[in-house]
Each structure stands twice: as C-alpha cells, then as structure tokens.
Design goal:
With 113 residues, this protein is mainly α. It has a single domain, classed as Four Helix Bundle (Hemerythrin (Met), subunit A), CATH 1.20.120. It is 82% helix and 0% strand.
C-alpha cells in the first residue's frame, strides 16, 4: 500500500468518526437545542458527509496535484478534530467545536471538484 493511499485512508477514517459522532446526537437532544445549534449540526453533518463522499470518490481516481499538496493539512485537521470531539460529551459543544474544524476540511476538500 502506498503512503498516499494510507494517508487518504487515515483521513477518511477520521472524517467517518466525526460523522458517526454527529449522527449519535439523537432527535430528542436536538429538539431541546437552540435553533442556531440545530442548524449548525445539520450544516456540519452535511459538510462532513460531502467530504467523505468526495474523498471516497478521489480514492477511485488519481488525485490532483493541488490536492496532494494539501492532503497532509487535511489529514492533520481531520485528525485534530476527531481528537477534539472524542473528549466531548455535550451535544452542543460537539456541534460548535466540529463546526470550526470542518471549515478547514471543507476548504481543502473543495479542491477535489
């Protein structure tokens, strides 16, 4: 397995973990939140889902030179966000901490097209 493939797999694993954490927030908990937090949760879930889908697609084709230059940054951002979220239990904190990290992820993933 090439180093590029291992790095991409690590990034995907981190993003999938983030998506699972967001999906574990149940409807009852979401219903009790302020609308801003509910909206942020939905935006975060969509952002990470799109990132996972695009990276899974990228695994099936040759990665662009632009993306390869930023893949390390993406992997580090996804890993840091996964670590930050693993320490949190409060749903609102998960949403807002996730939001900041996913901004970096989304910016880099946009390079995939």
């Amino acid at each position: 397995m090439s180093e590029d493939k291992m790095d991409l797999d690590a990034t995907l694993n981190s993003l999938r973990s983030i998506r699972r954490k967001l999906r574990k927030i149940d409807d009852e908990t979401l219903d009790k939140m302020e609308p801003a937090s509910q909206n942020e949760w939905a935006n975060n879930l969509q952002t990470v889902s799109v990132a996972v889908t695009r990276l899974e697609t990228a695994k099936l084709r040759t990665l662009s030179a632009k993306f390869r230059k930023r893949e390390t940054e993406l992997r580090e951002a996804a890993g840091q966000l996964e670590s930050d979220l693993s320490q949190l239990q409060d749903a609102v904190q998960i949403i807002w901490v996730g939001s900041e990290g996913l901004k970096v992820v989304a910016k880099i993933v946009k390079l995939l097209g």
